[in-house]
Write a structure and sequence with these properties.
The protein has 316 residues and is an alpha/beta fold. It has a single domain, classed as Alpha-Beta Barrel (TIM Barrel). 34% of the residues lie in helices and 16% in strands. It is built from nine helices and eleven strands. It has helices at 41-50, 84-94, 110-127, 144-153, 164-167, 177-183, 185-188, 225-243, 280-302, and strands at 8-9, 17-23, 55-57, 72-78, 99-103, 131-134, 159-161, 191-196, 248-254, 266-268, 274-276. An eight-stranded parallel barrel has the order 2-3-4-5-6-7-8-9, surrounded by four helices. It has a two-stranded antiparallel ribbon with strand order 10-11. α2 packs parallel to α3 and α8 (225-243) crosses α9.
């Protein structure tokens, strides 16, 4: 069900809440010593539930599991306005609760960008399917300036926030961090979905430690990217809470991808074979707890305007 604000809504009278899902690409090509037991079908869903996940994000052509114990959402790409309706119809028919979208290629002029966004919003309304345009490299939202212009033209737009594409792709910390956070407020205010991935200024996907209160021991360089992502996610969650209605749900889905897509870094192991530097499923379990801590912080800030945008970054 969709609320009037184009957010996902569960139809209840409950307070706005966080739902922690897992993007199923997170389970692809895990390293040999992963804690994930390699399950499929209903056993996969049972294990994800036991580990604290509340839903899954299916990839473009996945089929839902019959009798699945967890709800599902989807993802897709829309390159031109005339594709929007058919993509939305396909995912609505599959029973997706909502959909994250890679929109365009980032080479479009302003008119082309606006026509594409308008088509996505129209398809979302027609099929009663919340559609969140992802902040992603090589799309129309690949830079902060253009994304903010989209919010001015279409105040009703909603985003899937994958901040790694800004933090690394635009080297967000190069310059005045505080002024960039302030500039991003129109984006934070329109987040309806979050893809969980932490980057450094130079690498798109880097591991963190189970200790969520200190600088990751693997961190290179002077910056604490963990604290920065806590702040980015908390501000996005606060933006959601400021306008959310009863029953509205913000999904946070870890999406930690394999080296096949040049995300996970590969290093030689003791035998000289290349191996991913971390267990991406174990990382997703850590992200799950981190997301809930950030949401609790956002709820606290929403009740205290003086705490709304503290700097430097919060410590969860």
């Amino acid at each position: 069900m969709t609320s009037t604000s184009h957010l996902l809504n569960d139809g209840s009278t409950a307070s706005p809440k966080l739902g922690v899902y897992l993007n199923l690409d997170n389970l692809v090509d895990l390293r040999a010593d992963t804690i994930w037991p390699g399950l499929d079908g209903l056993p996969r869903y049972q294990r994800l539930m036991a580990d604290g996940f509340e839903g899954v994000q299916l990839t473009t052509d996945d089929l839902p599991v019959t009798g699945a114990l967890l709800p599902h959402c989807g993802l897709d790409r829309i390159n031109t306005p005339d594709e929007a309706d058919s993509v939305a119809a396909k995912h609505a028919a599959r029973g997706d609760l909502c959909l994250t979208i890679h929109a365009g290629w980032g080479l479009e002029n302003d008119d082309e960008v606006f026509h594409l966004v308008e088509a996505i919003l129209s398809a979302s309304d027609k099929h009663r399917l919340p559609m969140f345009i992802e902040t992603h490299r090589a799309t129309i939202t690949q830079d902060l300036w253009r994304t903010v212009q989209i919010t001015k033209k279409f105040p009703e737009v909603r985003f899937n926030a994958d901040f790694s594409h800004y933090y690394c792709g635009q080297e967000l910390v190069y310059g005045d961090w505080a002024s960039k956070l302030a500039y991003m407020e129109p984006i934070f205010a329109r987040v309806g979905f979050i893809h969980g991935r932490i980057s450094s200024p130079g690498c798109m996907q880097v591991p963190i430690d189970a200790d969520l209160t200190s600088r990751p021991p693997q961190a290179h360089g002077a910056l604490n990217y963990l604290d920065h992502f806590k702040e980015l996610w908390t501000r996005a969650m606060l933006g959601f809470l400021r306008t959310a209605l009863q029953g509205d749900v913000l999904i946070f889905a870890p999406e930690l991808l394999s080296g096949t897509y040049y995300y996970a870094r590969l290093f030689p192991d003791a035998s000289g074979q290349l191996s991913e530097e971390s267990d991406r499923y174990a990382q997703a379990v850590i992200y799950k707890d981190l997301a809930r801590a950030c949401f609790a912080e956002a709820q606290w800030r929403s009740m205290s305007p003086a705490r709304a945008n503290p700097l430097p970054c919060l410590q969860v």
